[in-house]
Amino acid sequence: MIWNHGITAKNETRLFLLVVTILSVMILPPFSLHPSLPKIRLEELLLFMAFGINILLLIINKFRFSEEQKREIAGQKKQFKTICLIFALLVASYAVSNFYGVYIRGAGYYGLRDVMELVTYFKYFLLITLALSVDIGKEEFDFLKKAVLAGLVFLLVFGWGQNLNLFNLNTWLSPYFNQQHWDTLIYGNPARVLGTFDNPNYFGMFTVIVLSYLTVRYYFGEDKGKFPLLLLILIGLVIKLEFLTISRTALLGIALLFIILSIWALRYYKWEKKILIKIGALFLLTAVLFLTASADFFYRLQEGLNFQSSTSFIGHVERWGKAIGSIWESPVFGWGTQKYVMTTLVDNEYALFARRYGFVGLAVYLSFFLVPFVLGFKKLAAKGREWGRGAAFDLPTQFVAAYVAVLPSVFVFNFMGGILYHLQLMTVFAISMGLVYNALRNGRENNDYN
After folding, report:
1. Which segments within 391-440 are labelled E, that is strand?
2. Under a CB-based contact definition with an 8 Å cutoff, are residues 405 and 264 in contact?
3. Which residues make Cβ contacts (< 8 Å) with residue 55, sequence separation at least 6?
4. What pLDDT, on the 0 to 100 scale, is given for residue 31?
5. CB-based contact 352:327 (threshold 8 Å)
6. Could you give the 3-state DSSP secondary structure of residue 120?
């Protein structure tokens, strides 16, 4: 197993790497090693360094494992095999489609930008297996929770700082961000908050993923008979942060997430009074925040709903049409990555992936997201039968429930954008996938760590 050797054999080290990765994604922009090289992210550098150290220690130890490591590997073996199979299919689809596109269809040539697609896959593989390898007990979860909360507080303060342009923040930070999208913050009509992301829509979708964990904990965590007021306030602050991004797709994602979790909570708790109060409080909070949103928010919302005149929607449709035309010319294996000769701006990840890898590759792409969803859904059903009515979810089950609840919102988002090729946002979601596989490990029957 990748993360079970040498220095990283200790659970504390793996947890530390996971926390640093999450915080890097949340608060740091990419940086450049050299003007002629593409920018990289800190977590990418750390992940690949840790992987190299693990491989070196494997060689030094002559691929021998201690009894403790053997037991740990045995507990992860089934999930690790599933992850390896999915990534093997992704790589195979990548190889076949590029060979077909370059040598059979003669669409172009294979270049460095195409190689980076494989590097991206490998990064996600490392992220998922890292999250799988961490043994999350009470102390580990407390540390993880505090670190993520600190990062979230930073984003809340930073987001409001951008919105109000405190201390001329938007001007002196502008060189560190994508200039095209940074202009939407300074000159946009209306101006939109980016957070630490290079695009307000992706920052908005990040808030949806965060809300999935907060809302699952709000509904299904152990509250010891007390109303979780502080958690509700935090949920409200994150919702308001999404409103500052004015991302319509993320707003739809929040609505879908809340509907799914509220209906789920009603059925699970059999319409108990306490859950009706929680649902009512969340609905009232959301309604107040929505009705008191800025005029710019409602202007952009209204503009997006007018499909005949919305420049955003019309632009999306034009790009979809071009991509669909290419797909039908090579529907089975696609055209390969072909980043030098085909635009990467499609604004629909299903169309982009189908154009590159055909419908065969699209099926693999969907399985990448759906396998942990299906496995997690089965675990939730089994837990529901085991616990009976109204029992609070333990920690592993909360991880699973958050992923299952938010995936429909992610799939909706992929129609207007895409998560797989956004290294910052997908890093967060890959860790969510890894936590689902972690919850399915042998012996993951943890107590509730609220």
Report:
1. none
2. yes
3. none
4. 78
5. no
6. helix
Most confident of 134-148, 226-240, 299-313, 430-444: 226-240
pLDDT averaged over every residue in the chain: 87
Report yes or no: 133 and 139 within 8 Å, Cβ to Cβ.
Answer: no
State residue 40's pLDDT score: 82
Residue 128 has pLDDT above 60, yes or no: yes
**Could you give the CA distance from residue 410 to residue 291 in angstroms, rounded to a whole number?**
25
Contacts with 113 (C-beta within 8 Å, 6 or more apart), sequence order: 337, 339, 340
Distance CA 54, CA 69 (A): 14
227 CB neighbour count, 10 Å cutoff = 13
Q: Cα(176)–Cα(287) distance, rounded to whole angstroms?
A: 35
Choice among 18-22, 178-182, 261-265, 290-294 with the minimum mean pLDDT: 178-182
pLDDT band of 63, cuts 50, 70, 90: low
**Mean pLDDT value across residues 365-373:** 97
Terminus-to-terminus CA distance in the chain, angstroms?
Answer: 30
pLDDT at 36: 62
- CB burial of 195-205 (b: ≥16 within 10 Å; e: otherwise) equals bbbbbbbbbbb
Nearest to 420 by CA among 351, 374, 322, 324: 351
The residue among 253, 251, 252, 242 whose CA lies nearest residue 160 is 242
User: How many C-alpha atoms does 67 have within 13 Å on its Cβ side?
Assistant: 0
Measure the CA–CA gap between 232 and 352, rounded to whole angstroms: 38
Provide the pLDDT for residue 7. 34
* Residue that the structure tokens 């609505």 belong to: 255
Neighbours of 388 (CB within 10 A): 7
In sequence order, the 6+-apart residues with CB closer than 8 A to the CB of 61 are: 5, 6
CB atoms inside a 10 Å sphere around CB 37: 8
pLDDT score for 286: 96
- Look at residues 409, 370, 421 and name the one whose alpha carbon lies nearest to residue 242: 409
- Contact criterion met (CB below 8 Å) for 442 and 74: yes
Residue 293: CB atoms within 10 Å: 16
Q: Which tokens hold the place of 411?
A: 């799939």
Closest to 118 (Cα-Cα) out of 138, 102, 154, 94: 94
User: If you search the block for the tokens 């998560």, which residue do you land on?
Assistant: 419
Q: Which residues pair with 31 in a beta bridge?
A: 40
Q: Helix, strand, coil shares of the chain as percentages rounded to 5?
A: 75, 0, 25
pLDDT at 67: 63
The answer on pLDDT for 182 being more than 80 is no
Q: How many CB atoms lie within 10 A of CB 43?
A: 23
